[in-house]
Amino acid sequence: MRMSGAPATPATLPTDAERVRSILAAAHSMTAVTDGLRTEVRHLDGGDPMGRLHLHPAEPGGHAEHRPAIRLEFTDVAPTPVRDRVRARVTIVGRLLTPYTGEGAGFPNGSDSDSTCMEFGQAVLETADGFAHIGLEELDAARPDPLAPYEAGMLTHLLDDHADLVTLLLRLVQPLPAASVLRALPVAMDRYGITLRLEERRGHRDVRLPFPSPLDDVEQSGAQIQALFSAARRRSHRNTLPA
């Protein structure tokens, strides 16, 4: 417990609610399940569904129980060719307060006046670390990571055009990667830092390389990434792992 008057520990990871909001902001597709039917919505184009999906608190006394149940499913897939590319899954469950007819109701092809209102049940984030349940107030208060819409392009650019710099970043990994590591690939990037996946013959592990300070917008990313490269160059040891 932090004592009163003590400085807060700087955040180095997104909260679960921020992670959910970031996944939604970067989503290009989702699955909507209602009335026993699964509808694949494939053209979100990175537009945050929260802009047209209106989540409402549960009505006292459960008066919406007669409403159709709806479940929205999102899958967060790493943009780089790592092992086990599914990084997270997000599920939002609730009950419809207005009709939902698929892509024409508040999602990609709907007009600005189209929207889907639902009574919020819960949001569930599933990662390799387990499950987290996020409430409506927490979800409303969170903001998407500023890098979320750009992360895929930034990671693929780093890997495709600057693979040598990925190898350079290994100098920052502590303890040093073992000789059993076959390759290292960037698997994630957010306002707090870059995550590398170290793949071995049997399994893999992820390592976080934090930025000197969290980003407030995408324009700051270049300087922060360069700061990591500079720090890696200052390390004396060499690493010959393939990128």
Write up what this structure looks like.
- With 243 residues, this protein is α+β, with helices and mostly antiparallel strands.
- It has 2 domains: 16-141, Pnp Oxidase, Chain A (Roll), CATH 2.30.110; 151-234, PNP-oxidase-like (Split barrel-like), CATH 3.20.180.
- The protein has 5 helices and 10 strands; from the N terminus they run H-E-E-E-E-E-E-E-H-H-H-E-E-E-H.
- It has helices at 16-26, 136-141, 151-161, 163-169, 221-234; strands spanning 30-34, 37-41, 53-56, 69-77, 86-96, 116-127, 130-134, 181-190, 193-200, 204-210.
- The strands form 2 sheets. Strands 1, 2, 3, 4, 5, 6 and 7 form a 7-stranded mixed sheet that branches. Strands 8-9-10 form a 3-stranded antiparallel sheet.
- A hairpin with a 2-residue loop joins strand 1 and strand 2 (37-41).
- The chain starts with 15 loop residues before the first helix and ends in a 9-residue tail after the last helix.
- Mean pLDDT is 84; it is low at 1-8 and 104-113.
